[in-house]
Amino acid sequence: MDEQKPPSEQKDADAPADGAVASEEMGSAEGDPLKPPEGASAGPGPEPESTDTKGPPQAGSTPARRCALCNCGDWSPHGQRELQRFEPAPDWPEQLVGHEPPEGPGQSPPELEPVGDDLMQIGFSERVTPAQLFEPTGHCWVHRWCAAWSAGVGQEVAGLAGVSRAVFSGISQKCEHCRQMGATIPCRAAGCPRLYHFPCAAASGCFQSMKTLRLLCPEHVAEAVQMEDARCSVCDGPGDLRDLVFC
């Protein structure tokens, strides 16, 4: 005859199983221990800093890089290509002569317009100074197409030359389209005084030859008929040059 265990021993023998069930029920009620409670931080360390650079810079932060000709940032939807850092001109110190802030010597120049990619934010006001567009070493940041299309800029083995001189010229040159400073791309029609920023050229209906990097303003766009890339690749006709779409 089998020996029966006392009730107290039977209860002790069943306790581990009951305890395991109770533990599982408690865990499901409290939630997954691997996930932080709702509203709590995912880890003990500080939250990562935001990489969004569209907002205004915080006090003490590094200013956002901008093109010294069009005022757009590193990336722009207007096709200026990459933002590059260009070497100073050999006569960089001499170029600063005569470019004092409008308020007079020793006065701080006004703050630059915010960096932006909207067409309403292209260019600079008439109060811009070289100190705001150049680094203390004389280097400047300019988009490749803003530089390559500018008057006086040439292509050399080492890259584009004359970019800093173009920036100096743009300080006193107003765009025909947006009426802001920094315009260095001229209409190539004889005697035409119109100048543009690279993004403003397309917005105003200029003809831009991608093969010769020459621009014709809307008043002289008819002269583009003689250019090779002014003809449609499908019908081989010029059509309305202001509506011609480029790859």
How would you describe what is shown here?
There is one protein chain. Strand 7 and strand 8 form a beta hairpin. The longest helix is centred in the first third of the chain and has 24 residues, at 7-30. A two-stranded antiparallel ribbon has the order 1-2. The chain contains 6 helices and 8 strands. The chain is globular, with a radius of gyration of 33 Å. The protein has a domain at 65-89 and 120-207: Zinc/RING finger domain, C3HC4 (zinc finger) (Herpes Virus-1), CATH 3.30.40. The protein has 247 residues and is an alpha+beta fold.
Topology:
Layout: H1 7-30, E1 83-86, H2 92-95, H3 130-133, E2 140-143, H4 144-148, E3 154-156, E4 159-161, H5 163-170, E5 185-186, E6 195-196, H6 198-203, E7 207-209, E8 214-216
Antiparallel strand pairs: 1-2, 3-4, 5-6, 7-8
Condensed summary:
With 247 residues, the protein is of the alpha+beta class. 21% of the residues lie in helices and 10% in strands.
- Computed structural class: alpha+beta
Strand order of the largest sheet: 1-2
Please identify the top-level CATH class of the domain at 65-89 and 120-207: Alpha Beta
Which CATH architecture of the domain at 65-89 and 120-207 is right? Answer: 2-Layer Sandwich
User: How much strand content do the residues show?
Assistant: 5-15%
> How many beta-strand elements?
8
Shape: globular
Give unreliable regions as ranges: 17-61
What is the third-level CATH name, the topology of the domain at 65-89 and 120-207? Answer: Herpes Virus-1
Give the biggest beta sheet.
2 strands, antiparallel
One letter per element, helices H and strands E, the order comes to HEHHEHEEHEEHEE
Subcellular location: Nucleus
InterPro entries: EPHD (IPR034732), Znf_PHD (IPR001965), Znf_RING/FYVE/PHD (IPR013083)
Main location: nucleus
Keywords: Metal-binding, Methyltransferase, Nucleus, Repeat, Transcription, Transcription regulation, Transferase, Zinc, Zinc-finger
